[in-house]
Amino acid sequence: MTLPAAFSLTSASVGLLAALLALGMSSAPGWRELRWFALCATFAAFFNLANIPTTLPWVAEPTLLFTARLSLFFGGLHTVTWFVFIAARERRALSRLERAAIGVGITFSVLTLVPGVILEEDLNARHVPLVAATYRDATPTLLGEIAIVDYVASVMFLLGRALRDWRRGDSDGGTHALALSFVLVGAVHDGLATGNIIRSPYILDFSLVAFVLVVGASITSRFVASARALERSKRKLEVAQAQLVAKERLAALGELSAVVAHEVRNPLAVVFNALARLRRVQTTDEEHAALLRILQEEAERLRDIVSDLLEFASPRPPVLAPASLDEIVRGAALAARNVVGSAESDVVVEVGPSTELECDERLVRQAVLNLVTNALQASGRAGPVRVTIRGAADDPAITVRVADDGDGVPDDLRERVFTPFFSTRPKGTGLGLAVVRRCAEAHGGKVSLHPNRPRGASFELELPRRSRPSVTT
């Protein structure tokens, strides 16, 4: 095999590979126009295949004449298909001028297959020492010369359109202009070589494969960028969908909680009244007194549950005002000790240099109260609960960290602890941490759980100093 024949075969292989890749990508939504590019690359590959016998000395003359006609046939169809691909990429109909150019191009391509119409029925030998090969070409007729001029004019028209698009800011226009420049140079060069004006090998095979590679690289880059954008949109959609489901679930839970709390609150008031009357009865029966204590404790626990349900079921937008987080935290810590019945030494509060912020004092106090209460009630706790306020004056946010040395939270439960009605304690309502997260989100902040070293759990409530309230549901 001669060197030009090997180059033609390589170019054809590259063109067919590009066509297969484009055809595969065309199945993606919004990329149907790549089917036309795949057809364009296929015609370029067939053009290269038809040029392989041109320098092979053992190929018979009738075969060379037939492959020469095939070469011009596929070259013309390549240009025609490019018109359609550009229109499909731009999502527009073909103009009258484009339809006329396509009609003329198809006509010349079909006439090429008719012996003696576009090409003479004799061969001219042209030796090119540079590649150590002899080209045997068919001479174009007068109509064939007109067809070649039409081919060059079509490429120039497409090149001008691509340059115009590039000047208008279309990056693909610049890529197409570069690719079409290769084809134009190759077509003009080979026309001069055919007329023995210059003695050099044909280069249109290389021009067409360069054309396919440049445009294919641009398409691949756009396809990858589109796929990445689609993946980002998918992730955003999944997050938004999860948030919507969570909001709908919380709204349903809130309505149910309000109904349950309302139905329980009235009977609970009757229970407390009955307890008060029973305590006024004078008795020395220890069992009677013990039962009263149990009843009192369980009634108070039920009252706390009702309060939590009502708090959870009736969220409200935060009312922001300047406040000192130091005062809020110390008040919440004191209230938590009273709820649990802990000693003053069970809670250690460490305050940073700057604790001023804008917040809803009642919501933040309730959130800190819930965190400290949970820490005091942590199973296995031996040391004091440490409440730390962190944040310099120029920091955009301030953080309250509540840490204990209890048994901690298992890894498989960390994602669920903020879910409403989920609790790791037998007597917990599962609403405390849900209220904390709602408070954080209402202020535009966040709450997170971290393992405490060497043991225990640490909750961090981060609040912006100048809050951006979110809409609560």
Keywords:
alpha+beta; 11 helices; rod-shaped; Rhopdopsin 7-helix transmembrane proteins; 473 residues; two-stranded antiparallel sheet; 5-stranded mixed β-sheet; Heat Shock Protein 90; 12% strand; 2 domains
What does this structure look like?
By secondary structure, the protein is an alpha+beta fold. It has 2 domains: 3-233, Rhopdopsin 7-helix transmembrane proteins (Up-down Bundle), CATH 1.20.1070; 317-464, Heat Shock Protein 90. The chain is built from 11 helices and 9 strands. The strands form 3 sheets. Strands 4-6-7-9-8 form a 5-stranded mixed sheet, covered by helices on one side. Helix 2 (34-51) runs antiparallel to helix 3 (61-89), helix 2 (34-51) packs antiparallel against helix 7 (204-279) and helix 3 (61-89) runs antiparallel to helix 4 (96-112). The longest helix is centred in the middle third of the chain and has 76 residues, at 204-279. The chain is rod-shaped and about 130 Å long. The protein starts with a helix and ends in a 9-residue tail after the last strand. The mean pLDDT is 83.
